Amino acid sequence: MKYSVKKEKLELQVNRKYTIREMPASERPRERMEKVGAKNLSDTELIAILLRTGNHDLTALDMAKALLMKFNGLRGLHDASVQALSAVNGIGIAKASQIIVAFEIGKRLAITSKGANRVVFDNPETIASLMMEELKYMQQEILRVVSLDAKNALIGYEDISIGVVNAQYLIHAKCFCQQ
C-alpha cells in the first residue's frame, strides 16, 4: 500500500479493493479484539474499531492507517482538532468527534482512577504524577489549582490561567479568591 498527501486530504492507494468482511475472521479487528484482547491490538486496529466503518473507497483499517500516518501516530492524533481530522478522506465530523471523545475519556480515566484510590497527596511529587498524564503534552503553560480535603485526598482541580507558547501571565491573588 502507498500513501500520499494531497490538498489536506490523505488518500490511500490500495492495489486491491477489498472489504473487512472479505478478510479472514482471524485478521478482522473486532474479532481479533474479542480473541486476544484490546491490549494486544495495533494502534491501527484500535482506531479502526473506533471508526466502525469505512466508506466506498476505504475500509476502516485504511482510514485508521491514513490517520496515524498523517498525524504521526497516536500522539499527533490526540492533539488534532475536529477540523484537522475531518480534512482526511472519509473522516467527517462524526468520526472526528468519536476520536477526540475517546482520547478525552482516556485522560479522564487516567486522572479519575488515580484519585479514586484515595491517594493521599502528602508531597508535591504525588500531585505532579497525577497531573502529569494530561499536562505533559500541553503546548502552553497552565496554572492549575488542585483542591484537597482535610485528609489530603483529591476534591478536584481547575485551570486558572493558560499562558502563551513562551510565557505565562502573572496572576493576581484576587483571582484565587474568586474561585
What would you say this structure looks like, in words?
This protein is an alpha+beta fold and 179 residues long. The protein has 2 domains: 2-107, DNA polymerase, domain 1 (Orthogonal Bundle), CATH 1.10.150; 120-178, no CATH class. The protein contains 8 helices and 4 strands. The protein has helices spanning 29-36, 43-51, 60-70, 74-79, 82-86, 93-116, 124-135, 173-178; strands spanning 2-6, 9-13, 142-148, 154-162. Mean pLDDT is 78; it is low at 1-16.
Provide the descriptors you would attach to this structure in a database record.
179 residues, alpha+beta, DNA polymerase, domain 1, two-stranded antiparallel ribbon, two-stranded antiparallel sheet
What does the average pLDDT come to?
A: 78
Query: How many strand elements?
Result: 4
Instruction: Specify Rg, calculated over alpha carbons.
Output: 21 Å
Structural class: alpha+beta
Q: Which CATH class of the largest domain?
A: Mainly Alpha
Task: Please write the string of helix (H) and strand (E) elements.
Answer: EEHHHHHHHEEH
Beta-strand residue fraction: 5-15%
CATH architecture heading of the largest domain: Orthogonal Bundle
CATH topology of the largest domain: DNA polymerase, domain 1
Helix content: 40-55%
Q: Uncertain regions: pLDDT < 50 for 5+ in a row?
A: 1-16
Spatial order of the strands forming the largest sheet? 1-2
In whole angstroms, the N-to-C terminal distance is 54 Å
